[in-house]
Amino acid sequence: MRLAGNDLEIRGSSGSLEFYNGAADGDSSALAMTINNSGNVGIGSSSPSSNLDLRTTTSSTLNIQGGDG
Prior knowledge:
Blueprint: E1 2-3, E2 8-13, E3 16-22, E4 29-35, E5 41-43, E6 52-54
Parallel strand pairs: 5-6
Antiparallel strand pairs: 1-2, 2-3, 3-4, 4-5
């Protein structure tokens, strides 16, 4: 499924569900998240190896907030 005007794509690949996003041109999407057939979720990863697998190519901070902020 693809919505090219806002560059959102949802793909099925080898038993995984993949979510892509990117620029508004509809042709430069990048993988944002994968859910594989084991139920593992990868953000920035096409092959998550644990329940939640977060990957980045830049140094960043992971923020986790509760209901009270």
